[in-house]
Every structure is written in C-alpha cells, then in structure tokens.
Amino acid sequence: MAKQEEKFSLEAIVIEALPNAMFKVRLPNDKEILAYVSGKMRKHYIRILPGDMVTVEMTPYDLTKGRITYRAR
Q1: Which residues of 42-69 are buried (b: 16+ CB within 10 A; e: fewer)?
Q2: How much is the pTM?
Q3: pLDDT (tens digit per residue) in 5-58
Q4: Is the dihedral of CA 52, 29, 10, 16 positive or negative?
C-alpha cells in the first residue's frame, strides 16, 4: 500500500502564466514557486489568469513546486 502523503494547502496569487498550464505564483510569505494546474481543473477548462487568487497544494518534500487545486472567484 502507498503511504498517505502529508500535503498542505496555501492561498497564493498568480504572477505569470507559463507554457503547458504552468504558473508562477506568490505565496503569503513572498516566496515564488512554480505551480501546475490539477487534472480536474484542466478537464473542466477552468481558466486562470495573472492576478487570480488560487489554492496551491504542496508537499513537504519539494517546497519549490505545487499544484493549483482551486481558483477563487
């Protein structure tokens, strides 16, 4: 059985849109990370633009990358 990873979520602001559904986002502690769009958001064509507030899910193993799981309205 696979071990359940301990993920944590943070609110972030999208700074820049990059190719292949990748984004540069700024976390509340002013760190910038690279984040990609989760599969469900891609499937349902959720558009993300610079300036949007998003929820980023991260793992403690690599704090430079994350997954965008929600876009606030």
Answers
A1: eeeeeebeeebebbbebeeeeeeebbbb
A2: 0.88
A3: 689 999 999 999 999 999 999 999 999 999 999 999 999 999 999 999 999 999
A4: positive
**Burial degree of 3 (CB within 10 A; 0-12, 13-18, 19+):** exposed
- Separation CA 22–CA 24 (nearest Å): 7
46 closest CA partner among 15, 24, 23:
23
